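so my prof wants the structure for this chain in the tokens format not the other one, which i didnt know existed until like an hour ago. anyway here's the sequence
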Amino acid sequence: MLVSEAYGSPGNLLRNLAQRFVRIAEGTILKAIPSVMLNQGHLKLRESSAMGAMDREWFYKDKDTKPVRRPASAPRIGSGVQRSPSGRVPLWALEESLNGQLTEYGHGRKTHSRKPKRVRQPRGRRSGRGLRLGTVGVIALVVGLYLTPTIFDRYIFAAALPYLPGSPVPPHGVDASDVPLGLPPASNGSTSFVLQESPDDSQDYVAYDPCRPVDYVVRPDFAPPGTDGLIEEAVAEISAATGLTFAYRGITSEAPSENRDTYQPDRYGKRWAPILISWTSPAEIPGLEGDVAGLGGSLYAHTPGKPFVYVAGQVQLDAPALTENLQYPAGRDQVRAVIVHELAHVVGLDHVDDPSQLMYEENNGLTALGDGDRAGLALLGAGPCVSQL
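here's what i got, hopefully its the right format
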């Protein structure tokens, strides 16, 4: 077998071989002409017809004729080739002669193959700059780890929380609109009102989201006779003063509680719990003991980067005490005024030190909202929309 890579270009070698095979020495016509094929970088000679066994035996018996090696500039074929008694040149004899000549020819040539390049391995070096960059990287990592809880809470946890098992908050934006559902009346300019304290110093006050309805339910148990429709009238008055849209969601069996959950999906579905208006007593709500006729307030929710917003509230009415008030002249109006007062607490008004306002802490017989009450309620109706809650 001839290795083409040792003798230069395979194309040149093939052309030389073809020319040499045609000019066989001494005019002998070969009966077996070798064909050349390139296979995986090697040159192979293969017979076009089978050689007889007797020719091969002859060669090994008659060794008088030796091949003539010609270390010329290129191999020559046909001179010094072993022949059989029949005068034919066996293919194996031609191959051996050719291999020998090519070997001698190859030893005298310079090949053009390149030496493999040595690949230098980079040396590791330490530098002051690298050390400084490493220090900066460590500091950046520490800062990143310090800020990670904030980023996680603001963007990842806040988005995933509503969908976790046992989540304390509903899916975001339930019933939310892109614009407020109503508009508050123009302010009359009065400043005789006080807003509930905001949990955030950068936020002046907390209000219900005007872009979604303010749901409410009523627990009618223990309602005094003669109070039918009073709750609906009081809700309508607060709605008109704020521009907020209240939505009645029916009656409920939920009892009032000082630790009420703002999210009760089993009872109210996957939304914030509605405002609970209940007729109750000091026995059920100790905060109603004494001369307190009612209690009202709301709980807020907050998502990082957004304003605090009220999401659920309660009005707790002292049924036994208000039953007595119904016995007085204009008693029904007095009871309705108590309900309006507590609903104003629910939407964000606090007590004001002005006896001319319904939000004055003491009941002095007023049955209608004052100018300060209305100015404060109008402001609370213009709170921010937060669909992320």
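also thought this was worth mentioning. Confidence is low (pLDDT under 50) at residues 1-8, 24-78, 108-113, 121-131.
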